[in-house]
Amino acid sequence: MTAAAALVACGSVFVFVACAVTLYHFAQKEVGWLSFSTSLLGFVLSFIIIALVPYDVSEALGRDDRDSGQEVLVGSGWELIYWATFLLCWILCPLLIEYEAAGDFTVLGKLRASLRRNIAWCAGYIVCGFLLLIWLSIGGGTHGSLGAWCIAASNAWGLLVSTVLMGYGLVAVPRHFWRLANPGQQLQNLYCAAVTMDEARLSTQFELQDVISEARAEIRSRSSQIWDPALERAFSILQMTLEECELMHLELSNGAPTPQSRLGCCGAPSRSGSVEDSSRVRIEYLAQLHRALKQAGLEARRAACRWEEMLRRCLSLEDIEEHLYPTALELAGSWNCCCVRQLCHWHGVRS
């Protein structure tokens, strides 16, 4: 292994460790290992290009001294990054998003729910690809392998999305920096948006409160006369999620308790029919309730985070308007990033 290859390996390890530490710091503690690993892989594949591009450029400039082993290393590295990113973007991430949002109580049930919710997109992709192949066959332009067509399709989609986003950013980014020079105008805009955002925050809390009441009533109606292992597992998982959402609601509402709902107010299915059919129908209903509970909790937490971020921005802009920061260094020292704060408080920078 050459010195450049060893440097690439060390850089890759550094990227992996840095991404793992950063992602672990910002990730929620209840996130599963599968979601964390997939997110970590996406970050590593994105940032590892920084370590591979200089090595590829240096090897291309010294092509005369380049052996076959180095060519295989560079080619295999790019292929691994590309196809791993392709699988993450088009297959694993969409399935995993719906898998985590599913309310089913088994791995197989969550996987089936994820496939059902992604089948519409998959059918659309297949139909579009089939129509494209027919059009190319009629026009006589079918050249290349299946892998080449996948690369061309993903590149075309990436260029289209990049064009749209860069076209928006070409106007939005300069406008954003232009508005940063006027804190008073930013405050007025934030004051106007605060009313709508506060209503959205309270609406998500009320929705979470309603779903919590419905789940609590359903658990209270649990019958001890009929014992079904699958039903008991469903109730156990629903109970744990309910306790987490109740703690979240207490935190978001500053300790305001959720109202106690009476039995029978929720839309639970009837218990008529055989025991097996009744258990199956009730498990399906509990899965829907579990999904609604998880979704309501996520929406309430997201709205609360947006509200807190807006409050932080308003307070910072008000301090700027009142000239509480005599220098830009003092302003940078109040940022949330701990690294920036430590750097601004360092004696060498302040002197």
From TrEMBL:
Its main location: membrane. The keyword Transmembrane applies. It is found in: Membrane. GO terms for cellular component: membrane. InterPro entries: GPCR-associated_LMBR1, LMBR1-like_membr_prot. Keywords: Membrane, Transmembrane, Transmembrane helix. It comes from the Eukaryota. Pfam families: LMBR1 (PF04791). The chain crosses the membrane at residues 6-26, 33-55, 80-97, 118-140, 146-171. It is a multi-pass membrane protein. The keyword DNA damage does not apply. Belongs to the LIMR family. This is Uncharacterized protein. It comes from Polarella glacialis.
